[in-house]
Sequence to fold (445 residues):
Amino acid sequence: MSHNQIWTEALSYLKAQLPGHALSAWFEPVEPIGLSDNKILLEVPNQFFAEWIESHYEKELESSLNSIGGMDYGFKFVINSNPSKIATDSATTPQQRPKALHQNNINKLYRFDNFIEGGNNEFAKNAALSVANNPGENGFNPLIIYGGVGLGKTHIMHAIGNRAVELNNSLNVVIVTSEKFTLDFVNGLRKNKTIEFAQKYRKADVLLIDDIQFFRGKEQTQEQFFHTFNALHQAGKQIVMTADKYPGEMKGLQDRLLSRFESGLSVDVQPPNFEVRVAILLEKAEQNGLTLDYDIIEFIARHVKNNVRDLEGTIIRILAKSSLMNKEIDHSLVREVVQERTGGRLNSDISMEDIIQKVSNISSISEDEIVGKSRKSEISDARQVSMYLSREIIGTSLNNIGLFFGGRDHTTVIHAVNTITNKIESDTRIKNMLSVVKQELGYSF
Ligand code: ADP
Ligand code: MG
Fold:
């Protein structure tokens, strides 16, 4: 086998073992460049990179190279002397990835003990835990976990698998994506092995199927799934599924399937709120051996809000960037990464009320005065600072800022923004006030 083929196989194994961000940050930049003494030569951008992989993923890398084409390969890192070609965006660009070979393995990294609970997911987590503790015997059959991408559905599903096996390792836990199920079925048809297919799934004590929305429009696969489902359900075996939507709202799935699902429990996962995002970032940083100052954590949590995968990706990206470019993890590096991931502008959930409230605290001028008519200079300074920040942080239109600040004209707002822009240079009091308000709002460090 060529080194490229070996690496392709190894990657498909790693893909099933490691979270996607780890794969993209640490393994995709790796280039297989040759084979020597049954060791595959892996080119990495720098020493740090090699050490990082060795200290964090050595076991997985070793196993990935075992029994490829009947051989046990080793590996050796080669440091690239000209790393510029990967210094830019390789960590986020998905390269062609081979199909996973070991997809039905439970991912050991997805456990209940490293799943952070918050109001957004506690119901789902607790239902899942009770299913894992008593599969098939808890009234939650099937259990369906649904919600948007990157919110932990796959994590919870694997956690059920891990826990169920931990409690009873004779349990036959079958875990697949709906695509894998479809593929198995189609291959069964093609090779006249439909009986084997049926047996594989019908022998499960716990059947975990990820992303059933991909059954959409696949009539024959749904038919098979329907029979599998009934057989297992009647035998009191546990079924868990994840989906991107509430099952009742899923189009393209047969009604008889959907009505079967109603006999169980559907629970949703929601995006995490600010506090949960902070907790997740602290956990993910620790998992990756990274110590980040609290202000950095809070800054990320303010700006990266959509889902947990993004939060995790941000941490990994910070690590990858600092190692690829040999840079310290400082405020500017973090800001750069966050900006990349949020698509340029640093958005946050700060409102004009928040700005006025902070300015009021710091200047000891009441919120009413800030939006009021007084022309006293401290008051109008506070007002202009608030307008300036509304523009800079939230990007509110001039008209809306004017309206909010006591029904003023947009030209007044332009004047305020210009005045403050000039004063930043000359007036340290204004400059400090701006920086303290921004920090307290979590907008900057
Ligand atoms: P989904 O299947 O809903 O798209 P995943 O389960 O793949 O999402 O989650 C994306 C990433 O975020 C995974 O690496 C997962 O471990 C992590 N993750 C999601 N939710 C949590 C959580 N509550 N605590 C810890 N990690 C989480
Ligand atoms: Mg998923």
